[in-house]
Amino acid sequence: MTKTYRWGILSTGKIAHKFVQDLKLVPEAQVVAVGSRNQASADEFADLYNIPHRHSSYEALVADPDVDVIYIATPHAMHYDNSLLCLNAGKHVLCEQAFTLNAQQAREVIALARQKNLFIMDAIWTRFMPSIDEVRRMLHEDILGEIQMVNATFGFKPPYDPQARLFNPELGGGTLLDIGIYPIQLAFMVYGQKPDSFLTTAYIGATGVDERTGIIFNYSGGRMATINTAFTMQLSNDATIYGTNGYLHLHAPFWHTSTMTLSLTGQDPKLISKPLIGFGYTHEIMEVHTCLDAGQTESQWMPLDETIAIMETMDALRAQWGVVYPQEK
């Protein structure tokens, strides 16, 4: 008999709406509760999606006995406190990326989850999409040969508002935590390790956060990954993995793609299509269910030690740029 998992939604922002819309497409998922910082917001969200339990605080949400798993959809700077709140209430957690502000916070959250034997995962939805399943298969079978280079960009130009989430350091603003995580995690997945060293530069805007970055990760044997992020201009938002046998181009937006082109030496390019279910959050939701069904407290495709390693790498990048969040001072 298929088990149904009862989800609670912590926060009612834009991404929470998209997530719940996809949650409704997963037969084993039931959205039973939402928590906001005020009753009106919780009620409005719950009315949209026919959610029975509407809580006017996050504390009330995590205390709801009918909730099995909580999706955290707050800004980056709140993830640490929100995760601890959920775990201390005995709830499994899917926490939106970036997992925390820094590696120390990530270590503390993960230590608590392990202590309590609860599932927690960094919600890097890209890792669970059918296209990335195909990338992993190609890497495992050495279709591209030895991988020598990864290129990835993620950039767009939002309206400038120093108080908004993207630019406000108190909310963990800057490109690195918001969108830089996507090309960085791709490099981690392809090479299976932290970079041995890196070169980087960044443009730091008026609020003190990174608005444009260039990053080169270096690995043994001259292998590398080049990454660009921006809030000041539109980038191509694609990614390419280059090997000695050819290359694989992940079409834009690469972190949410359903199409890729495989170009092997001496062969015609091949278009690969891997459709998404819904908007794409469905795949990470199903991974949470798969892990819980198996009694696992972490995903093999987004392991917790890798989450810490990614945060450590982002800490090192910020240190070189001189970006420090108020919570770290």
Give me some keywords for this one.
329 residues; Dihydrodipicolinate Reductase, domain 2; 6-stranded parallel beta sheet
As a percent range, the share of strand residues is: 15-25%
Distance between the termini: 51 Å
- Specify the CATH architecture of the largest domain: 2-Layer Sandwich
Query: How many strands, which pairing sense, and closed or not: the largest β-sheet?
Result: 8 strands, mixed
Structure annotation, total helices: 9
Total domains, how many? 2
The CATH class name of the largest domain reads: Alpha Beta
Query: Radius of gyration from the CA trace?
Result: 20 Å
Written as H for each helix and E for each strand, in order along the chain, the element string is EHEHEHEHEHEHEHEEEEEEEHH
Description:
This protein is of the alpha/beta class and 329 residues long. The protein folds into two domains: 5-124, Rossmann fold (3-Layer(aba) Sandwich), CATH 3.40.50; 130-275, Dihydrodipicolinate Reductase, domain 2, CATH 3.30.360. 33% of the residues lie in helices and 25% in strands. α4 (79-88) packs parallel to α5 (103-116), α5 runs antiparallel to α9 (304-321) and α7 (175-191) packs across α9 (304-321).
